[in-house]
Amino acid sequence: DAEITQSPRHKITETGRQVTLACHQTWNHNNMFWYRQDLGHGLRLIHYSYGVHDTNKGEVSDGYSVSRSNTEDLPLTLESAASSQTSVYFCASSEYSNQPQHFGDGTRLSIL
Amino acid sequence: GQQVMQIPQYQHVQEGEDFTTYCNSSTTLSNIQWYKQRPGGHPVFLIQLVKSGEVKKQKRLTFQFGEAKKNSSLHITATQTTDVGTYFCAGRRTGTASKLTFGTGTRLQVTL
Hints:
A: 112 residues, mainly beta, 4-stranded antiparallel β-sheet, globular, B: 112 residues, 6-stranded mixed β-sheet
């Protein structure tokens, strides 16, 4: 069965370090998304991609970057981790613009 | 930017009682999706509404899209403990492709 996997599931790191969260989907979807989830804010879009070599900023993109070198993967990088980036991060994908998004299990990131 | 608010933020009901969550957008939407997230889990797609005034049912769940396409509601009849979780609406602004703006979510707790 097709799926979307995130790794690691949990990570603790220190402020100032670079962190990369992996997202891999086997749905062969063109659209991929990164969200962060914080209490009281729901899911907020960080970055998204409509296809290989395409990346776009979401509403909370400062301090984050993504790259899309193939269809399956959209890694999310925190260039210099800050405590404000402690959150649960979800990756999602969809086949077409108006189709449902399929979410990974999430990565819980703590920055001390 | 587009804002999508949900009320209430939290509701605690006894099993068998009804539950409703309301979703309001600051802008007109081309469509709206609803997702459910179980505690510790990831959002899972429930349904999509596209037409003005549309009503869809899934067993005990009834979804409505407002006539002006700026609001939506989810009603659960006779709640069960399996309904526990956070319900998110997610709207796509008219004229934008792919990007969903998620509501703040309503957390439902059901006790016996």
